[in-house]
Write a structure and sequence with these properties.
329 residues
Length: 329
């Protein structure tokens, strides 16, 4: 709705300051022409909004202007209470602050919205970790989070899977990400112990693998243009591309299809076609990590799947099946 979009545009300018029409259009998911029309509508309504032309121009509110818009739609009030994550907040040392903020927000809501927010809180609960994931201890999470917030270089002792297994790193912390119940630190390496910080490209570190951490007095800033959410999305895309560099052509029965999970199940559902030779079976090209991984995967499906290509993988599975048949004969 236009009214909701105008409020969003006003709040964006109030919180971020000067923004170009293109930036506003991207945030509001509308065209630049729509932003121009909305800006005219706000100005006509008496909002002290002005725009400057040119390369460094953009829209901004008159200095000192603050909107008094405090109303929340029912869905917005419900969403605010749904985003409360007591577990992660407590891990970051913000559990009490989150509870207090929710209490204040609830008290400020009208009776009707308060009842809807309470209904959301009572009927929905967010538990991020998987069923079979053990809870990792992250004793240094608070120190790392404090350094991220304060923008200070840290020195850590880190445990990794390859030798040498324990290494020392000097890092500029860019941000923390909670993924499937596990905390990750995104940070850039810092060369030298003093002077200007000139970190390299960011890397990802598991916080539960940090053995020791020391915050230094050296300040650091985010690289120009760096955005944590966008970086994390790119990291995930690159990870999945590296995870399945090879392919295998297979056919699976209806029951075998129900046993597939992850990338293989998705590829079968989106690209699978009826097998021309076996009724009720599906043929598809599935992503695999390696021949060893694929061998274990498809042998686990037993007679409900058959690898057709590549020949090397098919031969490897055939040899394993023959050896098993000889052993069980």
């Amino acid at each position: 709705m236009k009214s909701s979009r105008l409020i969003s545009m006003l709040l964006l300018l109030q919180t971020r300051g000067r923004m170009t029409a293109a930036e506003l259009a991207e945030e509001l998911e509308v065209s630049v022409r729509t932003v121009y029309r909305d800006a005219d509508a706000l100005a006509a309504a008496g909002i002290p909004l002005y725009g400057d032309a040119g390369h460094s121009g953009g829209y901004q509110l008159l200095d000192g202007y603050r909107t008094r818009l405090t109303g929340l739609a029912p869905g917005e009030a419900e969403a605010l209470f749904l985003t409360g994550m007591p577990g992660p907040a407590a891990e970051l040392g913000l559990g009490r602050a989150l509870s207090t903020a929710q209490l204040k927000l609830r008290a400020a809501l009208p009776t009707e919205l308060r009842a809807q927010a309470d209904r959301m809180r009572l009927r929905f609960h967010l538990d991020a970790p998987g069923w079979y994931a053990e809870q990792e201890e992250t004793p240094h999470l608070g120190q790392v989070a404090d350094a991220v917030w304060r923008g200070r270089v840290i020195e850590i002792r880190y445990r990794r899977w390859k030798a040498p297994h324990e290494v020392d790193r000097r890092l500029a912390p860019y941000g923390l990400v909670l993924k499937a119940g596990r905390w990750y630190l995104v940070a850039g390496p810092v060369a030298g112990s003093a002077g200007a910080v000139d970190p390299g490209p960011p890397f990802t570190y598991r916080v539960d693998q940090i053995l020791a951490v020391r915050e230094t007095a050296q300040e650091c800033e985010l690289p120009e243009g760096f955005e944590l959410a966008a970086h994390w999305r790119r990291t995930q895309d690159e990870f999945h591309e590296r995870l399945h560099p090879e392919e295998a052509e297979v056919r699976v029965s209806a029951r075998g299809a129900t046993l597939l999970t992850g990338a293989q199940a998705k590829a079968l559902a989106t690209t699978g076609t009826p097998d021309p030779e076996l009724a009720g079976w599906t043929r598809a090209v599935l992503p695999i990590e390696s021949h060893a991984h694929a061998q274990a995967l498809f042998l686990g499906l037993g007679a409900e799947a058959e690898v057709l290509a590549p020949p090397s993988l098919r031969g490897r599975i055939a040899a394993t099946v023959a050896a098993m048949a000889a052993r069980y004969a």
